[in-house]
Amino acid sequence: MKKLIYLIGIVFIFTSCEDTFLDTTPNDALSPSTFWNTQKDLDLALTGCYSGFESGNSILYRDAGSDNAFNNFPWEGWTNIGNGKLSPADPGASYYDFSTINRCNEFLKNADNAVEVPEENRIIYKAQARFIRAYEYYVLTTNYGDVPLITENFATPEEAKVPRNPQAEIRTFIENELTAVIDILPESYSGSEFGKATKGAAQALLMRYYLYFKDYEQALTTAKSITGYSLHPSFKGLFDPANEQNNEIILSVQHTPDIYAMSFTPFLPNSIGGWSSVVPTQSLVDAFEMADGRTIQEAQSQGDYDPENPFINRDPRLRATVVYPGQVFAGRVYRSIEEDDPDYYNTADNASKTGYNFKKYTTFIDIDPSAPFWNMGNDIFLFRFAEVLLTIAEAKIELGQIDSELYEAIDAVRLRAGMPAVDKQKYADQESLRKLIRNERRVEFAMEGLRRDDIIRWDIASMVMNGELLGAKRGSVLETTQPNGDHHVSMTLTRNLIETREFQAPKNNLLPIPQSAIDKNPKLTPNNTGY
Question: How far apart are CA 325 and CA 473, in angstroms?
Fold first, then answer.
């Protein structure tokens, strides 16, 4: 059975019919006298909090705001975030939304009215709502900096016209909330409730928070406090829907066919009915090492990498993450580099403009090419144990603690992927290890929504996001094959130039407060720097 099915079909009681998602005042509050009485009421209200706190689709789109991916359709909201041409009037995919926070506030205000529910249960329910609210504020402040801190809902729209609180206050709130709920939340739930916030989820969010804001001591301490999880044996198998409840997953966004389905249409090739909305860049493909741990630049200098036939002997995570030319995918050979093929970049609007498609999460279609990819139940991961290990490694690198624990954390992730352990002679100092860990996070978490935050917190976004965005060289797919069944390729023609990107720091480190929100609440001004 599917674990936590969010009851999306009946969460309409928390859904507004008016366009108020940018307001900081709710119009969907429930009357204490008529609703907040029973266990069922609390279950339904908490489901309302969970149903909006994160979107699997949004997670998979987010890499398009980084050097990992390109969003082909501007109306989907990520093209202008990727190329830096966003504005308050055209803010792209906006995170400026207080609806889930309002629901959590309403829940926390009224949950104790359900006196027939044991107090110890109500405490856990409230801790889940506090976790969700803290997560929402983490997303808001990392994307917008200063935002209104609202812990009690307003009675009228006029009262809701409040100014933005300094980010320091938002950070203190997030840290205090997560610290408070860690020892309240259960370590696990029954199978039917898989997907609810656990102690590990709160620890993982706090860990990510500390890492983002460069508090490496606390990030390390928090990461090392997370126990009870382990790496799944197979990187590729990790994303198979049959394994989605494996012991690596700390928290995931739940999906169920026909009820709260996950559509993979935006991520699949045109030739099998996909839209190629979000596609990998050449920069991401080039980040995957050779199978022996050398970079492609190192291998090429030694005559072991052919840029015209580049997919031989590469990090196995490349094949598990990206559909590349010559690969056998969904029962057919992917021929995006050949003119007139359905996946050639200018054959159709839905053909990948880079010549690549994402594969992560879509191995189900390799197993069954007839699978209804528009109506899937795949969970999308928010936190997994690999992030804990790589956080331990990164924090120790930044703290100058070059020791066996650091190498063991990276090695665990690499060996699971089928890569060799770290060469300790090659990567022996802080500078070389910093370069390694940043690339390791990139290839391990591609298409999992972490890359944009990473390049911003590392202060390298202006280096990796400016200039020409390139796709694959064009050419032909050959009849000869590799041992894994993929075809060799001859990529000798010009690369696709998709667009020219701009990233101005510090301006583009944050998104603009949408003009529509400012129109409703003028106290949100001034906008973020540069907007």
Answer: 10
